[in-house]
Protein: OstA family protein
Organism: Aphanizomenon flos-aquae WA102
Amino acid sequence: MIPRYQLLKSQIHRLGLALALPISLLCVGGLSTQLPPATAQSGGNRPLTIRSDTQEYDAKTQVITARGNVQMVYPARQIQATSAQAQYFSKEKRIDFSGNVYILQQGSNSIRAEKVTYLINEGKFIALPKSNRQVESIYMVEDSNPSQQTNKPAPKTPNLKRSN
């Protein structure tokens, strides 16, 4: 017959081994340095994904704040954005970007600014520059008559101060 203390010791040893694998898997999973992206469902359940170094969610106000190397992808509207910080206001359907904002839409149109507000329901961007700078937007314009070129030169435009 096995003494009682040895039986107890054997059971504790088995329990320890049984718990070792799940605990070690949890620890390894917890060491991952990349946080999962925040995905917001906006209008018609189309995902809007935000990746960043850190993120906070305020359940009371329903605001997600992303900081550091922010990357947003919104495939339904063909929009990609990068910035230092972004705040997604789910109740208002609005995203505020700040800090070296770059937005690319439909693969060719772009906006560079210090702050940009994107009103999701309206599909509208409001961009503000750094002080003493300008916002830069680049839009691809389709020429309505590419085969009919005129010999008339384009009008001169004034010299503008570059924003970057």
